[in-house]
Amino acid sequence: MVYGLxxxxxxxxxxxxxxxxxxxxxxLLWRQKFKARPARSRTVNAGLSLxxxxxxxxGLELFFAVFYDQSDSFNMSNVxxxxxxxxxxxxxxxxxxxxxxxxxxxGVRQLWFCGDSFTFGHGVKRVxxxxxxxxxxxxxxxxxxxxxxxxxxxxxxxxxxxxxxxKLSIDADLRRKTEVTDIEGRPDPIPFKxxxxxxxxxxxxxxxxxxxNEERYTKMGQWQPQTFPFRGTYFFNFLYFRYYQSRQAGxxxxxxxxxxxxxxxxxQRLLSTIDKMRxxxxxxxTDFRVAIFxxxxxxxxxYPFAATHKLIVEHCQEAGIPVQDLAPALxxxxxxGLVCNRFDAHPNERxxxxxxxxLETGLLKDLMSGTFKPAK
Length: 376
Hints:
Blueprint: H1 7-33, H2 38-67, H3 78-87, E1 109-114, H4 117-120, H5 131-142, E2 147-151, H6 159-170, H7 172-177, E3 196-202, H8 213-221, H9 235-247, H10 249-252, H11 254-263, H12 265-283, E4 287-293, H13 306-318, E5 323-325, H14 327-330, E6 339-341, E7 344-347, H15 349-361, H16 365-369
Helix pairs in contact: 1-2, 5-15, 6-12
């Protein structure tokens, strides 16, 4: 890959440009040669018109391949995949963060943020602009050298996967049973010592408990174009996905289906899983907390997930889990533009900055002030 573009694409585009150059050269020679022959001249002019149309489309293609550096919500278009290749660098543990350590140095506590693409920073080019990294800077300023903050989120992860990752990370017995190995392939039963784990909920985390959800994503996977020019291009591929997503009922009804899910059994199963995560953390001396990220593109006076936020907050309060709803901190700033772009509803840099400020004065206030009391 070069700047997110494959060698095959670069070679094909180079061949296309060279062919276009020689085609233009030949057409101009024929135009001069057949200038006095109207019938031939009209044919050559038609060829030149076609060449100019193809040149304009090629210019658009190159713009989308090289300069249109944008992600999209489902990361299915070639444009978004190129964005991902350009801006996402993973550590040896597979996360988009600095290398993790098993046990922090004496006197240093580990704070982990677990979540999906909202926490991972999909659509955010620099990891320093994510709310987790902003919290790390603020925390180090308030409590120098006292905390090691890590982002162990994964784009596309749901609550079941996050629960499994967290349990596997902190439980030595579970690591042995699953034959976890280190980066050199050696058995690695040693768990991570995590002092504080913050599970950042994106409201689609309920998906594994929604009947038929796998079928939705299976159908989305079938959208991938199989024919030229939509398969290996950027501009035409972009148009292809915009067209398909605008016509698919599964996409149009996506958020409405999630609202219904929280009102029924899937929502209860998610709350039950949160309790299991709390219990697993408590068993290993990890302080467990929850933050709730709203769907920013629907946030406003008639926010359809208001009842969902209330459901989660009230459950966590009753279960003794520290919780913070980020919607009140983000809602007043919606008009500023809090999503990455028109086709990507993930939080942008401004939204991450607001979330970090809210967490510093809310859910993580005791860490910032130095009054944090480790779980027993």
